[in-house]
Amino acid sequence: MEDKGLFVWCDDIMIGMDNDPASFGRPSFSTANIFLNSFMVQELEAYEKIQTIACRVPEKIDKTRQRRESFIDTIQEECWDRRDKFFYSVDVDIKTRQFDWFH
Asked: What are the φ/ψ torsions at residue 74 (nearest 5 degrees)?
C-alpha cells in the first residue's frame, strides 16, 4: 500500500473517542482515523497563523499552506465515501492481516 501521508494512531489508549471501532482493539498503527487527521488539518492551520505573526517569511508560510491544502486533498481522496457521502477512517493494515473481511 502506498503511503498517502495520513496520520495514524499508535494505539487506542486515550485517543479521545471511547470505543471507536475504527481504532479500538485494533493492531498498533493500523488506522488512519478521520478524527486525528481532521485535528492535524487544524494544527497545520494554526501553525500557518503562528508563522504569519511570528516568522513573517512568505516562503515558509506558503509551504505550510501548500502542505495543509495538499493534506486536505489527501483526506478528501482517501477518507471520503462518494456513495455514503461521509468521511471514514482508513484501514492501513489491510496487506498484513490475514482476513477476507475488513473491520
From this structure: -65, -45
> What's the pLDDT tens digit per position in 34-57?
989 999 999 999 999 999 999 888
DSSP character string of 50-94 = HIIIII--HHHHHHHHHHHHHHHHHHHHHHEETTTTEE--EE--T
- Give the model's pLDDT for residue 102: 52
The overall pTM is greater than 0.85: no
What is the distance between the alpha carbons of residues 72 and 80, in angstroms, rounded to a whole number? 11
Question: CA-based Rg of the chain, rounded to a whole angstrom?
Answer: 16
The x, y and z cell numbers of residue 9, run together, are 494512531
Q: Decide: helix, strand or coil at residue 45.
A: helix
